[in-house]
Amino acid sequence: MTQAEDLAHELAIEQAHVDAVYARLNKATDTARSAARSGADMYRSERDSWLREEAGTALFERDAFSFQAARRLAELDAEHEGLVFGRLDLDDPTEREIRYIGRIGVRDDDYEPLVIDWRARAAEPFYRATPQKPMDVVRRRVLRCRNDRVIGIEDDLLDAAGNTENLPIIGEGALMASLARARGTTMRDIVATIQAEQDEAIRADYHGVTVISGGPGTGKTVVALHRAAYLLYSNRRRFERGGVLVVGPGPVFMHYIERVLPSLGEDSVTLRSIGSVVSDVVPDVSSDVVDDAATATVKGSLKMVTVLRNLVNLPLDISGEGPSVLVTVKGEVLQLRPSQVARIRAGILSHQRVNLARESAQKTVVAALASQVPADTEVDPAEVPGLITDQAAFAAFMDAWWPTLTAPQVLRRLGDPRVVARAAEGILTPEQQTVLTASYADPAAPWTVADTALLDELVSMLGPVPPEPDAEQPIFIEGGAAVSEFVTTSDTWSRKGEPDVGEDTHATYAHVLVDEAQDVTPMQWRMLRRRGAQASWTVVGDLAQSSWPDLEEVGRAVRDLIGNAPHREFRLSVNYRSPAEVFDLAARVVKPHYPSVDLPRAVRSTGHEPQLLTTTEAALVADLADAIDDLTGEVAGTVGVIAPPSRREALRSALQQRLATRMNPANLDRILFPSPLEAKGLEYDGVVVVDPDVIVAESPGGIRVLYVALTRPTQRLVTLDVGAPGRWRTGIPAHLA
Ligand SMILES: Nc1ncnc2c1ncn2[C@@H]1O[C@H](COP(=O)(O)OP(=O)(O)OP(=O)(O)O)[C@@H](O)[C@H]1O
After folding, report:
1. Cα–Cα distance between 419 and 394 in angstroms, integer?
2. Would you say residue 287 lies in a domain?
3. Do both 542 and 660 map to the same domain?
4. Residue 717's beta-bridge partner residues?
5. pTM of the model
6. Maximum separation of any 2 CA atoms in the chain, in Å
7. What angle (nearest 5°) sits at the alpha carbon of residue 379, between those of residues 373 and 380?
8. Quick check: CB of 299 below 6 Å from ligand 1?
9. Candidate from 128, 190, 191 with most ligand 1 atoms within 8 A of CB, to mutate
10. Nearest-atom index, ligand 1, CA of 218
């Protein structure tokens, strides 16, 4: 047979099997629907009307198995990628065996596997077998399908000495074919081409902490997502009930990865950007606004824990000497001076949380006032507390002195330099205090990503907001001390409609997966750990890509998380994203600054060296437009334009106008303008990095953020210096520079 005939023959064989799988699933779907219709409630799942594996006790196990598969089929259909993607031809000494591997497992009427779930043990050789250690596999085959049609085949011969009779080898290898494909705007799963070192990390034990590290493009993110799917498969009861939380750097990244788990048939994982983790305890707060470098550094530091604790303990009015309280009981004047009131507050807050301590604060004040009633008065001592608390002046004092506090109210107080001076005294330098105050100067400014971790910290310091009957608003404080400063700096003072801090229960999960962990600040780690007090963890990152200035601090945060828990580490060593030519340049840029950088091996070469261009300020927009235009012609997928934050908006609007007049609209949609931080974790077929020196200057991560930008292309890289060749080029060989 010719090669083409071989291929046609093999495609027909595989199509027949895939047809059998879909026929079985269609049957299961029909049966499941009619069972659901017949009102068999015991078989209903909590989430929808499909039958659950666990609930189907009265069914044969094979039916439950297929029902579960049918339930997931709806998700998978949307992906247009094949349900069945692999085949193993095994040759053990006794017989030849064929195993089909797919996104879900399906069995035939006799409970024989038609397809094995990729996460099952029997599928392991698909990922682990090598020519050196074939694990009885003679031929590994990857099937490319579009919906239910088989459209391509890629084979690896793993055991040339095995029985290869009637086993033609087709194609040139699935991995390379997959890597060369154009990229769209969302990440694809890699279930058909997971490599052995990746598979080990995916299937690692779940207890304690699993750390996955590796350079750019080594598949850390995609591996971590497959691991989440694997954990759900191998321990569904535990992880589906307890929940799996996946945290990534920002909404753009979350959008990029959001289809991967559904394409693996998993829809029960919670995805959150780091700026939206807090939304379970401070509803409506979710941010993708990034502070400037100096502010982010202050807000991310552990020093803020003490600053916030001081802030919570600080009297609400710091302009005067503080409130006093004065009541009369049967003609007796009872009063506490401001210093006495302040002492009581400090004493209570040393061991109780504000929102839980109002009752004991009131009791303490009442007791101190009652003790002033002379022994010889006629009043029954048991009645004194009631006589005090019944008075409007006392109620007003309590409301002003001890209002229920919400985290947003308290954090906004940092807009007042006097408050910052008191709360941060001896903790932050005067410069840091100025930076902090400035960032809260505008009470209407949106919360930033760094603020969300501070809000989360405050929620746990303040305690839950108690459900309150409609209380009177505070009117005045004895002695004229007003609370107006507090009211005006808070945009959420009104009790009606204020963002309710809610229960003190942060949502907790059985497994927390943290991607781009090198950028998680110490304050953010505290926020994440509240979500996983009993959880096991997967932590994914690459120190060389960190935007945080203090790498030692990043390492310490992960060591603290591990503590005494069991843990394991995996290092991924192959860069599947960047062509070798591009990665070589990026490595030369980062290495001198960061000699211990973990540089992966780039497996693919395109033959295209990066283009290092220089332009002038005046010609920047025109030259950039030309570079983008060229790239859209050279690559089939996306083009990313990564410019320094200070230039980004102006460039984007200038370019949009210019490009709209000369490019076809379909190509315009392929062009994206991420900020250097947003580009983290993402990839584009072509990338233009604009003004690299300024990207370095504007980020606390410096050169490491440029390294991130340079490692985003899957095909072509262009850099554009403005004015003169940038300093970042120092050390790059002449033929490139
Ligand atoms: N085994 C594989 N088969 C096919 N593609 C793969 C494989 N492993 C990784 N890739 C692809 O390589 C690219 C990089 O993967 P991913 O984004 O997960 O890397 P990363 O290590 O998280 O990168 P970075 O640190 O730069 O964010 C993705 O397009 C991914 O699909």
Report:
1. 27
2. no
3. no
4. 687
5. 0.84
6. 117
7. 105
8. no
9. 190
10. 21
